[in-house]
Amino acid sequence: MAKYTNYLMLLPGLILCVLFLIIPLGIILRISLSESVSTAEFEIHGLTLEGYVRYFMSPQALTILLNTFGTALLTCLICFVVAYPFAYFLTFHIENVKLKSYIISLLMVPFLIDWNIRTIAWIPILGDKGIVNSALMSLGVIEKPMSFLFGRIGLHMIWLQTFVLFMMFPIYLALNRIDPELIQAARVLKAPPSRVFYEIIFKLSLPGVICGWIFVFVSTLGDFLTPGLWGGGLQTLGLSISVFFGKNVWPYACTLSIIMIMIALASLYILLKIVDIKKLVYER
Questions:
Q1: 246 in Cβ contact with 30 (< 8 Å)
Q2: What kind of fold does domain 33-281 have according to CATH?
Q3: Contact, 162 vs 150, CB < 8 A?
Q4: Which of 143, 147, 176, 207 minimizes the number of CB atoms within 10 Å of its CB?
């Protein structure tokens, strides 16, 4: 009986996963295969692949998929470009532990503010009469205000502000787990700095990089509110799902949900095949 005690500790989490993940996904899959749904009584009738055929035969399907996954991957890349140098500097160039703690605490302060307030704060910065446009016009770079908000630029800026820490912290954790003696040994052996960085630092930090990419990718992929408010008419899969659910077109909305989940799982599978993120939690 004692050997089953550890497995009993998994029981509460397993029950929650079944009740709030497996069963809801099963319901969504079943509705996506139905011919019609009575929204009043929630009765499912028929069994068909009509919704999937309808979507992939749609001329807008490829555009929506490219918009959805293209913006998500571009956001991951932007967050990576911003987060990796900062995590690297924080790890290898700041030795004071208290100072590191203060910097990390300051980075988390914006998350104590409501998302709406943090998002609206971009209006006086990137708006037509905002700081950026006023500065560019005063310098003579532009003659009239540029449209930063309500487009892809504003969308990626807001997503960068929202998700950059989700990219930075896994990278910072991975960099902190690199044995400094490996770096010192490579330098003693006269290895070029670029090779030391790529062969040791970057490759050993890949579990954190992939983990950060997964966090940002999944978060942006399922976000429909931000593209709807700030995307300037950009149509994404999440936004389409929201629209069809709002119109009570349950089967087609569930069809789009399953398509997004399957493509997301395939993308995550590829990312996880690149590197084993379990190394991120191993003790060095």
A1: no
A2: MetI-like fold (1.10.3720)
A3: no
A4: 143
